[in-house]
Amino acid sequence: MITSVTLPNPTGWVKAATRIRREPMTEPTHLVGTPQPQDRRLLRRQMLVDDVYEAIKTMLMDHVIRPGARISIDGLAREFQVSSTPVREALARLESEGLAVKEPLKGYRATPLLSLAEFDDLYRFRQLLEPWAARRAAELIDDEGRARLKAELANAVEPTSVDYAGYKSLTAHDNRFHLLIAALSGSEQVRLAFERTHCHLHIFRLHYDRDIGPEVLTEHRTLVEAITSGDPTAAESAMTQHIKNSMSHRLRRIYE
User: Fold this and answer.
1) Closest of 243, 9, 5, 200 to residue 114, by C-alpha
2) Taking the complete model, does pTM exceed 0.85, yes or no?
3) DSSP state of 255
């Protein structure tokens, strides 16, 4: 039975889980030549922005920053002990993923969770797009495509807990897996259309239960078997069932 996630205490969580790099970086030993001072500064700055981005993203996914809540740039900068610049850059990236919204003269707020109408629209979109992509991928599959699908499936990791830290790897795999099938369909427009939805983030942010992980990976294995065997009908059917299971059995009940 799927149950709601118990959210962590915001203050304690932030202190424990957002360790931002402030120490000098050691240059990788495999790089040829010595990076110039400007290059080192840019690299350190990018690493800092990446850290802040991951920390805020985790707060949004775990509802430490509640859906719809205002996001204080100054407050986050104080919490992470950084300037406001990396916070602003991180929020701009999160806005592009649909996890944050910038309002004129007001700043940023966390994107609300999907409404029932938005949820249904997202799955109607997926039902139109992804079964076709799976069928087409099976029709076009070659040795390289088989290897890429099998490698992605081999890299999938079951979640270790019911917070974002525990299922972050599964979220990333889910995104890569579905994007790969879209790419193997041979249609760049289909791949781009799916990529722009960032549906994996919105779905996992909406609800997560640890039992979902094994179910998702089992269905992914069925999809890989159908596509790599070059069976378009089985691939289309497996994707249709995968989406229906996600929509009806795993998620839609939370609106009831």
Assistant:
1) 200
2) no
3) G
